[in-house]
Amino acid sequence: xxxxxxxxxxKEMDLEVxxxxxxxxxxxxxxxxxxxxxxxxxxxxRAHADKLRRLTEGTVIVTLGSKGSMLLGKEGAVPIDPVKVxxxxxxxxxxxxYIGAFxxxxxxxxxxxxxxxxxxxxxxxxxxxxxxxxxxxxxxxIN
Length: 143
Hints:
By secondary structure, the chain is an alpha/beta fold. Helices cover 40% and strands 16% of the residues. The chain has seven helices and five strands. The protein has helices at 15-19, 28-35, 42-47, 49-53, 94-107, 112-126, 139-142, and strands at 4-6, 23-27, 59-63, 69-73, 76-80. Strands 1-2-3-4-5 form a five-stranded mixed beta sheet. Helix 5 (94-107) runs antiparallel to helix 6 (112-126).
């Protein structure tokens, strides 16, 4: 099976656990914690890509909020641009919808890059609504 680990919130753990995931998804705070280096934007993800990639033997995705996300995979470090929205209501649940949409994309046979772009669209819908579960987008809203 393809395993996705969202290692959140960041906490002490045996780093061998991270290596078992096919895909590790963390935000910038969690990436900083696990890699032991400051990660606040795409440039810093690129600068520390080797250290971040060593956290797992698979793919690493670092979500960066309004700055988008970075995919660290076979293609190297690939920035995923955020989807611009007219008005951000709140960001509660945006990371969760990103991860859920990424997992759905992989289940549907998307490449990592396609699934990240799909996930970015999902997160962009989430930030236009209030709440956590209530803000999770439906498939037609993402497409």
